[in-house]
Write a structure and sequence with these properties.
This protein has 210 residues and is α/β, with parallel strands linked by helices. Helix content is 54%, strand content 11%. It has ten helices and five strands. Helix 2 crosses helix 5, helix 4 packs across helix 5 and helix 7 packs across helix 8. The longest helix has 25 residues. It is globular, with a radius of gyration of 18 Å. Bound molecules: adenosine-5'-triphosphate (ATP). Adenosine-5'-triphosphate (ATP) binds next to helix 1 and helix 7.
């Protein structure tokens, strides 16, 4: 649909672009560069944590599924309790995702609609391919980096052990598999400028949005 068919509703045709990649590949770093050139970014994993606290229906469903211990007395999410339970019972993880993902999708859609004057918006999430949410996007950008570098960067960032990072990498879909779904790949192994790579993709996305 051409933009000039909606002279007063240009926003309805702004594109939705996904940025994904495994743990520590540099998704957030890449998204900050997009933000610095004026592109709005929805950090879906961060939003999900807020939705689990603020959305009363989601909250009640989580309590029904995992118990009152899911929240502290001050109302905040007891993330370590939830992580412990769903780690042991994978069925509960599936149900938890089926509660949280649709609420995040709806919130993200409302957010996207509210963004005015942009050729496209970005949604950042780690498990976009695994969850199937990439299907509703116009284009997908994959950020990749070698495992060793990812391990070093996450250990430095989170003060975590090599073993912890490795076990999270091993649980995720391999990067080579993810590449099959991507329209653009950003290589974050330090050999190419991230800013240049983002800028090149930005130009292509801008022309797609016209
Ligand atoms: P997660 O999935 O864990 O949220 P992420 O994919 O969003 O991770 P970032 O948080 O952007 O990854 O990057 C991981 C760490 O590596 C951060 O501390 C970041 O500052 C650092 N980092 C990312 N890219 C580079 C780079 N090109 N050079 C140096 N450090 C980098």
């Amino acid at each position: 649909m051409k933009k000039d068919q909606f002279p007063d509703e240009k926003r309805q045709v702004s594109l939705q672009i996904g940025v994904t990649g495994g743990i520590g590949t540099g998704k957030t770093t890449v998204c900050k560069i997009f933000e610095s050139i004026g592109i709005p970014v929805y950090y879906a994993d961060d939003r999900a944590k807020n939705i689990m606290v603020e959305n009363l229906s989601v909250r009640q469903q989580i309590i029904d599924l995992l118990g009152e211990e899911s929240y502290f007395e001050n109302g905040q999410l007891n993330r370590s309790y939830i992580a412990k339970v769903v780690f042991k019972e994978s069925d509960k993880l599936k149900i938890l995702n089926s509660i949280v993902h649709p609420a995040v999708r709806e919130d993200g859609e409302k957010w996207h609609q509210s963004q005015i004057g942009t050729p496209y918006t970005i949604k950042e999430a780690a498990l976009m391919i695994e969850s199937g949410s990439y299907k509703s996007l116009d284009r997908l950008i994959l950020v990749t980096a070698p495992d060793e570098l990812r391990i070093k960067r996450v250990m430095a960032r989170d003060n975590s052990t090599r073993k912890e990072v490795l076990s999270r990498i091993e649980k995720q879909m391999p990067e080579t598999e993810k590449m099959k779904y991507a329209d653009f790949v950003i290589n974050n192994d330090g050999s190419e400028s991230l800013v240049k790579q983002v800028y090149t993709i930005h130009q292509k996305l801008k022309s797609l949005a016209l």
